[in-house]
């Protein structure tokens, strides 16, 4: 008991900041070895075609199974990985693992999988001098691997050197890769900037989707993004679809694709495997009610 009180007392005098910085230093050190220790995982979230509810692809989202701290989510470690210069390694690992997972599923099912694989790509990666070369190294000579890959980029990559970023994207585009502008609406750029980039799809940030029904300006924002993206020949993916009302509104706007908890959370590979094999996805009944 005395020991317990002593500890509690000691804790009281420990500044919270000190604890936070200790934890951070620990995460930095552990992150250096996370990939080689096989602690990274990929969760797969379905991307759905809104016209008919078909599974169109999936987004690969990284997780870190920390031996003592448990399952960690990207908001805890991505910014640290960026700051210590390890994000490229993490992103390439996710790309590699996602492509391998597709090939494992294909081997098990004995047929080709015609779905897209979206992978997040930090703005830091793209500014690495050998970025395109490294991506090519992972994708290899098989055109199908390049063609199924979509790299999700963010507006922040345009801040430093937009010309160089555009050149890198054009280079990889020639190999068959596709690009998607993630979290659209939260950054600084406009759709006219996207016009100049070989971006195939625009992902509207979930903050706007989720406020659509309470906030007229959020609704107008989504509507405008969809309209303008269409005039530029880009498809739209709506993020954060959580309710049938979101789905109905986005379908009516002509938004092509959607992602969100209404269809599925990011799933472990074995759970996603069931969905990949299914003839009719679990969310199909929603389309019956939407039509009715
Ligand atoms: P993101 O790329 O915008 O990914 C979507 C995030 O929204 C995911 O969070 C997903 O779980 C969450 N989400 C999806 N549908 C819903 C919904 O209906 N409601 C709500 N509330 N959330 C939803 P997650 O997996 O925690 O990832 C957070 C962010 O971390 C990602 O945002 C992405 O920016 C980054 N990230 C994830 N994996 C990677 C990676 O491998 N590399 C890099 N560089 N960043 C990654
Ligand atoms: Mg993303
Ligand atoms: Mg996003
Ligand atoms: Mg986001």
From TrEMBL:
Superkingdom of the source species: Bacteria
Domain EAL: 24-280
Coiled coil: none
Entry protein name: GGDEF domain-containing protein
Organism: Rubricoccus marinus
Lineage: Bacteria, Pseudomonadati, Rhodothermota, Rhodothermia, Rhodothermales
Shown stretch of the complete protein: 270 to 561 of 561
């Amino acid at each position: 008991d005395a020991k317990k009180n002593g500890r509690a007392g000691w804790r009281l005098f420990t500044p919270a900041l000190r604890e936070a910085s200790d934890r951070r230093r620990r995460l930095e050190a552990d992150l250096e070895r996370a990939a080689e220790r096989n602690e990274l995982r990929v969760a797969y979230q379905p991307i759905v075609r809104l016209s008919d509810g078909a599974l169109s692809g999936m987004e690969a989202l990284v997780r870190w199974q920390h031996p003592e701290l448990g399952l960690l989510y990207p908001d805890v470690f991505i910014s640290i990985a960026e700051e210590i210069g390890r994000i490229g390694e993490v992103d390439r690992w996710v790309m590699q693992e996602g492509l391998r997972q597709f090939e494992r599923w294909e081997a098990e099912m004995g047929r080709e999988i015609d779905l897209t694989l979206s992978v997040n790509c930090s703005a830091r990666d793209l500014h690495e001098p050998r970025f395109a070369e490294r991506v090519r190294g992972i994708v290899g000579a098989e055109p199908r691997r390049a063609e199924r890959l979509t790299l999700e980029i963010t507006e922040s990559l345009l801040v430093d050197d937009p010309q160089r970023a555009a050149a890198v994207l054009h280079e990889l585009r020639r190999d068959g890769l596709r690009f998607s502008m993630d979290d659209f609406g939260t950054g600084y750029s406009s759709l006219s900037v996207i016009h100049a980039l070989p971006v195939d799809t625009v992902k509207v940030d979930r903050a706007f989707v989720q406020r659509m029904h309470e906030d007229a300006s959020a609704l107008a924002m989504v509507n405008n993004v969809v309209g303008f993206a269409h005039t530029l020949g880009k498809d739209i993916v709506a993020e954060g679809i959580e309710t049938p009302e979101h789905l109905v509104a986005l379908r009516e706007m002509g938004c092509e694709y959607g992602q969100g908890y209404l269809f599925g959370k990011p799933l472990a590979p074995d759970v996603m495997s069931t969905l990949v094999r299914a003839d009719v996805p679990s969310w199909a009944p929603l389309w019956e009610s939407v039509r009715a």
